[in-house]
Amino acid sequence: MAEETRANEISTELGPAQEPAFKIIGTRPVRPDGLDKVTGRAVYGIDMRLPGLLYGKVLRSPHAHARIRSIDTCRARALPGVKAVVTAADLPTIAGDPAHLDDASFALYCQRANILAIDKVLYHGHAVAAVAATSLQVAEEAVRLIEVDYEVLPPVLDVVQAMREEAPVLLPSLRTDELGQKSERPNNIASHVRMQRGDPQQAFREAAVVVDREFRTSTVHQGYLEPQTATGLWNSDGQITIWTSTQGIHNQRQQIAGILAMPATRIKMVPMEVGGAFGGKIRVYLEPLAALLSRQSGYRPVKLVMTYAEVLQATGPTSGSYIRVKIGANAAGCITAAEATLAYDAGALPGSPVLDGAGILLSPYKIENFQIDAYDVVVNKPQTGAYRAPGSANANFAAESVIDEVCEKLGMDPIEFRLRNAVQQGDRRIDGTVCGRVGLVETLLAIREHPHYQTPLTGKYRGRGVASAFWFNWGGRSSVTAAVNPDGGVSLVIGAADLSGSRVALAMVLAETLGIHLQAVKPVLGDSDAVGYCDQTSGSRTAFSSGLAVYEVGQKLIQEMAARLGEYWGVPPAEVVFQDGIFAAGAERMTFAQAAAQVTGQCPIVAAISVHPQVVSPAFATHVADVEVDPETGKVTILRYTAAQDVGRALHRSNVEGQMQGGVAQGVGWALYEGYVYSAEGRLLNCNLLDYRMPTALDLPMIDAVVVEVPNPDHPLGVRGAGEIPIVPVPAAIANAIHDALGSRLGMLPMSPARILEAIGVGQPTQPEVG
Amino acid sequence: MQSFRYVRVRSIGEAVPLLAEQACVLSGGTDLLVQLREGRRHATLVVDVKFIPELTELYYDPATGLHLGAAVPCYRINNDPEVAHLYPGLLDATTLVGGIQIQGRATVGGNLCNASPAADSIPALIVHGATCEIAGPAGRRRLPVEAFCAGPGQTVLGKGELLIELRLPPPAAHFGAAYLRFTPRSDMDIAVAGAAAAVQLDQAGTIIRSARVALGAVAPVPLLVSEAGAALAGQLPSAEAIEAAARLAEAAARPIDDVRGTAAQRKHLALVLTRRALQAAIARAQVNTLGRANGHV
Amino acid sequence: MCDETILVHAQINGEEVAFACRPAQTLLDVLRGELGLTGVKEACGNGNCGACNVIMNGVLVNSCLVLGAEAEGCTITTIEGIGGPEGLHPLQQKFLEHAALQCGICTPGVLVAAKALLDYNPHPSEQQVRRWLAGNLCRCTGYDKIVRAVLDAADTIALSVAPVAEVSSNG
Amino acid sequence: MIERMAVVWIPAQLREMAGGKEQVEVPGDTVWQLVGQLEARYPGLERRLCENGQLRAGLTVCVDGCFSSLGLRQRVAENSEVHFLPAISGG
Questions:
Q1: At what angle do helices A730-742 and A393-410 cross, to 10 degrees?
Q2: Architecture of the domain whose range is C6-81
Q3: Which CATH number covers residue B252?
Q4: Is residue A15 scored above 90 in pLDDT?
């Protein structure tokens, strides 16, 4: 090894830190809400039924970019059974000249314009009007009777074309924001942010190896199976109730309040079971329509459910992107310089996750000299929403492909190269802050020592690929309420949506903290009036942030009961000790259940806790994939897949493995099969689950989830966020495996069979799917 | 779904007069119901033919071959030992259509009448030399399956005509057939390209007496490439002979670009899949002495 | 214009049922609407996801691709008909033990498909399970724990000499 | 009364205004006071970070690794490190 390697002592022994003995945390109990899900009794948003229910349907634009001259709803209103018809005219208007709105007004304009098109339709599927009727059939007929006079405008769909001078301008009031400074002319670049440190140009000149590549990725969708739905009742007293399938009841309440210009307190959000979300059910789409239709139909409840074509056309997929990455390394295999340009399409309204992508793509590594430029660009496609570590899997695909090529040119093992550059405690992160105790090295060692990596891969057209990844994770505000029952059971009311099993995980934290059986804890979700404010379930935050709130509510219950027992036993509360579920003071002893029976008689025991953790430890992962490629058809088969990820402390071990396996499966779809395909006129051509291909059970092997636990010092239980990172390194691991199998690198996602054939010289080059 | 009337008919005689007006035939429904719901087809009357005895028959007669009723769902074909034994090309197709659930409803007759250029069963039917039995106001007529499709989603059925049955001739010894398709995912996809091949070897199982090659998703209709079959007649089943036939199939392909694949990709797949279908068909023909099971075990 | 309705008789989850439906109404609409069996889920609406699976006359089908009128005289099993008063079916129990579900929207369809598989092939291999479940999309789990739960349930049923279930005849 | 000195990391797009420096040491007890000091030295810089007395939407402040929900009112300690970063919440 070259002499001047950077001192990078790596603890090579992989032993876990000394483990505090948990009885429940880390096990695999059956989840209490599972019974209703395996018997079909669970009630999801789409299952909502109410007496006198009306059915809503939305009229959507057939054009990608057009001015609305007029909307004629007379014939629709006249159809028997139609009770209400709404257009943007029914939304509160925004004061001021649309071409010169200030930031706050422009943000509200964008929110409202995405519920119902204002003056212009900006993407195929953009909502133009909505109808409520006594049956879905009548509503569908009524929508066909609405006549819209469109002046069709030229669309722009590709992010690179949209950035050009001559591109048609989508939003007259949009000026490029350069960290607080606005451009003169309106254009499609909503913002440009630069991150920079040291002198990358000089470092590139001194580097032994430099690799500079461009990448293009397609728009992809979260792919949750339950379509968007909302049932709304605007009552005659002005109070609104919404039953919906969402990731954040309080967040959606704020959005609806802004859109309808009314106080949030008048809106109650009732959380139904959620049929998958992955970031796609944070923003509201149908909820404001349900409310407006309900009021206009004489205060009757209205239910809307999207078809899956509407879900793909008009909800919030993640960005199609252009990414350029240039990395330099010295002969010893240390990254000395890096440059990246990321241009993400935000869809029709600003707000792509380009800053997330820019913030993660180099963050696994210590790099002193870098410049990253991030552009958020509007195009005539649906406004992008969040999708599991938003904007990160495509950025990681670009960076880790270039790193794989640097390793190849240096002749270094990809894990050794990453170990040499891995960011560790005390290092300066790309975002400038100092890195806390993290587990990237441990994930690299876990993969290096894993039988998968230790077993040589043999056979023609077979290849192995490695990739590492960083994700920020998020803290956010969480609230829980807990009440002790006389029999020693505890009801736990949770504010956070439960997308994949957080009720049992949070119940485990409370049972562990109180030293009682898991079955004694009843975890339920509260509606927006029954529990304190809780940010949406996203950013891998629920186990981390709500877990902290549940831990603290447990402590508070113990204090309260100890104080009551102090009164009962006639001793100062401080002398009452609680250990392994037993209260004791001197000779006195009571189990939790005995104490509960006694003290709740004196006075009920209830505790409410809200937290907003400020120190958020990031997640790291390293994956390895083996693939076989059929060189005659371009088909890629995944032979084996192993994912190692630092979760700090696993609460419910099966849930953590499930997040890893599910993230890998979505990553495989992003890598090989999924991608929006638009016509030149901007119509989405594959808006169904036949041609928007998501992986089936037959496309995947078993996925080996290696749970690495480097306890997070900034959390009482050592928990780190775990839900999003599993998707991030997947496209890169597969791309690197395909290169190992075929010798050629693919620069586009999805790595479809046609593109693989083209990469090995069969057929003419395919331009990026317009989408 | 726009509204229509539904009627369940019990006989061909009852069905034919109903088919005159804007009616459409319902057998499996896995294509029709999607098209009606998405407005790609319109009907005022849906005629359910699943209860007409002649359309639901599935039997093999050594003299006349396989009688496959137009409304027989794929799963019945998949479970039929005769088909697995004698018509492996057809079985390849019916075990690939959609997924298990689709094979529980979808029928070969429906697949044929839907006339998708990418249909899985039609290339297989073509290489098995199937003929279509059609009933209509002017009585019965019969025509080879390769002449049945007129264009994407169009057939030669006239007003009031109904497909009754497909007949597949009885295979001789050393006959073999296979159908392959390419889809990015391993299942649930519609063929980006498909190829079926059937080969009849001589008594000794060494020389190709005759062969048929048919392609899917590379032309407006499933395509019988007669020149490829002709080129193989009288040849040893060698790699060179197979390659030559595969090249002819590639040349015959006239694919388009669409959301599922590119023209260049399909052109190339026509070559690759024809080669592989011929190899599989020949391998099956060599072992098929009409005594032992052939193809699917 | 309200079109005429058809009276349909069928046996659903072991009970004789009669329901009225419009000719254009799918069996899925009827099951979820008139019959209130909301365990049968609608996701894709055109036969590509399996969330609406039912067993009809012993055959696994997508109820979104069947008209209500076609159910006349049929025997139908939905998720609500799996397991019974004496408790959960081994598949339901194993799905819970393996955490073979997360959001659960696909779970009813997957369980019905898995039951049809085990009725047809009591000892499937991993690959046979994956082929049989290829028509049931799941976006949360990556299928790993679903396949393990089905294989485990197959072993459990074999051990417990389960009562002879009527044999489904899917291909 | 000697005031506490904190190190403010200047976002790349504002370095030109701040004489090209990556970090600037300024006195102050709260982030708001630090920004005031920066504005005094480099006029126009405050307008880039703040709007009507608040941090710009989409920005968050990180003091010694702690993403503060107090924003400009967050207190700083001796030798605190202050970073202005994009607000990210995830999917």
A1: 40
A2: Roll (3.10)
A3: 3.30.390.50
A4: no
Phi, psi of A453, deg, nearest 5:
-75, -25
Element (H, E) at B6: strand B5-8
| Partner residue facing B185 (CB), from A699, A757, A763 | A699
Cβ distance of B268 and A762 shorter than 8 Å: yes
**Is A662 part of the contact surface with chain C (CB cutoff 8 Å)?**
yes
Q: Delimit the CATH 1.10.150.120 region(s) of chain C.
A: 90-159
Which domain, by its residues, includes D72? 5-86
Rounded to 5 degrees, φ, ψ at A584 are -150, 145
Question: Do the Cβ atoms of D91 and A194 come within 8 Å?
Answer: no
Residue A326 backbone dihedrals phi, psi, to 5 degrees: -130, 125
Residue A468 and residue A507 in one domain:
no
pLDDT in tens, A459-486: 999 999 999 999 999 999 999 999 999 9
**Taking CB atoms and an 8 Å limit, are A754 and B265 in contact across chains?**
yes
Q: Which chains touch A (3 or more CB pairs under 8 A)?
A: B, C, D
Give the other-Cβ count within 10 Å of C73's Cβ.
12
Q: Is A756 exposed, middle or buried (0-12, 13-18, 19+ CB in 10 A)?
A: buried
Supply the ipTM of this predicted assembly.
Answer: 0.96
Is residue A12 predicted with pLDDT exceeding 70?
no
Is 70 exceeded by the pLDDT of residue C1? no
The pLDDT of residue A5 is above 80 = no
Q: Report the alpha-carbon distance of residue C28 to residue C30 in Å, rounded.
A: 5
On chain A, the residues whose CB falls within 8 A of the CB of B187 are 696, 698
The pLDDT tens digits for B93-113 are: 999 999 999 999 999 999 999
Closest residue of chain D to A426, computed from CA coordinates: D65
Q: Do B265 and A137 touch (CB under 8 A)?
A: no
What mean pLDDT, rounded, does chain A reach? 95
Residue A366 phi/psi, 5° resolution? -85, 115
Q: Is residue A600 part of a domain?
A: yes
Of the options 1.10.150.120, 3.30.2390.10, 1.20.140.10, 3.40.50.2300, the CATH number for the domain spanning C90-159: 1.10.150.120
* Contacts with C75 (C-beta within 8 Å, 6 or more apart), sequence order: C10, C11, C56, C57, C58
Distance from CA of C63 to the nearest CA of B (A): 9
pLDDT at A3: 36
| Helix spans in B43-145 (H) | 74-78, 81-86, 88-94, 100-103, 108-114, 121-127
pLDDT value of position B84: 84
In a domain, B197, yes or no: yes
Residues B181 and B120: their CA atoms lie apart, in Å, by: 8
List of residues 6+ apart from A139 with CB closer than 8 A = A55, A56, A57, A82, A131, A132, A133
In a domain, D91, yes or no: no
CATH at residue A93: 3.90.1170.50
> Packing angle between helix B263-287 and helix B239-252, nearest 10 degrees?
140
Last residue of a domain, one of A253, A274, A305: A305
**Claim to verify: residue A398 and residue A479 sit in the same structural domain:** no
Please answer yes or no on whether B184 and A753 come within 8 Å at the CB atom: yes
Alpha helical stretches, state H, A588-722: 592-602, 653-668
> What is the pLDDT, as a whole number, of residue A102?
81
Q: Looking at the 3D structure of chain D, how many domains does it have?
A: 1
In B, minimum Cα distance to C128 occurs at B100
Nearest to A431 among D22, D85, D91 (CB): D85
Inspect the interface and report whether the beta carbons of A696 and B3 lie closer than 8 Å.
no
A101, A433, A610, best to mutate vs chain D, most D CBs in 10 Å:
A433
- Shortest Cα distance, chain C CAs vs residue A145, angstroms: 15
Angle between helices A653-668 and A502-514 (to 10 degrees): 160
* Same domain flag for A148 and A60: yes
- pLDDT confidence bin for B187, thresholds 50/70/90: confident
D88 contacts A356? CB cut-off 8 A: yes
